[in-house]
Amino acid sequence: MSFAAALLTPLALLLPSEGAGEAGADFDFPSVAAEAEPPVVYQVRIEQRMTIRISPRPSTIMPNVLMSLPSNEVGPQFEERKIGSCVDISRISGVQTNGNRSLILFMRDRRMVSAQLEKTCRARDFYSGFYLAPSQDGKLCIDRDTLQSRSGANCRLTRIRRLVEIDE
User: Fold this and answer.
1) What is the pTM of this model?
2) What CA–CA distances, in Å, run from 58 to 8, 103, 113?
């Protein structure tokens, strides 16, 4: 076989033979349009979720000072007074547990608010603060909003009262 024949043989194989038209009619190659699938449409849903974290108030008493304190009760006395059923979330600066079912909310204007939890809740679950989903009005209200502790407990407030220092 000559060099030219060896070079042209692969090209000859690509060309249709004489009977290929009839045989090719039985075999239909799919067209590009038939292979194209309908466009896939994705739906995107954007949700906005915001959570407010109220952290515990840092202790101002140093451990070495605790040793020198007398064992009897020292400090101011407080009484509870009505303040309504809601407090502004933006004014809460910290939280501290107080008893079995009570939290003390420290406000930015130096006021203190006592918040009573539901009967099934324990205040000690909220020792490291709580999370709160903000409401439309920006307030924390009793029997409406739910506090979530960092450990997963969900509780509602049943009562809030302002703590006022009394003079003896």
Assistant:
1) 0.61
2) 89, 15, 17
